[in-house]
Amino acid sequence: MNNIELTTYYDGQCPLCRAEMHNLMLRNTEGRVAFVDAATPGFDAAALGIAHEALMEALHVRTADGRWLVGVPAFETLYRTLGLPGVAAALRQPLLAAAAARLYPWVARHRHQLPRAPITWLFERAGRRAAERAAARRCTQAADGANDSACRL
Fold first, then answer.
1. What is the residue extent of each domain of the chain?
2. What is this structure's pTM?
3. Would you say residue 148 has pLDDT above 60?
């Protein structure tokens, strides 16, 4: 049974992209999202019907029904799907949506030049929170299955 709802194509050579995708992968406890590093040697974007250059300019998400989401709409959908509805809702608010739509292309163009220290700090914190929440969900699921011994410390 395939429960993949979204396939995410990202630039694995970009520290910012890699950090955010790692954070989202930690939240992908139900396996609803597939993550594909489009910077991997031999990756064939043409097989998807898209130019590799276009794919590397912005985050691309493909839905199970074949629709493409690019940039901010891709992030909004990922956040909603992976249990961050507050972040997703914020990206739909008119002022923040307008700011994100203007800022994202600049960030995407300059992503390889952004300083690593703040990226690492921000995403390490987010990653720890994601891992803690994922572990708590697994414990809750195990407890619901009458085997809570896996969650005891």
1. 6-151
2. 0.76
3. no
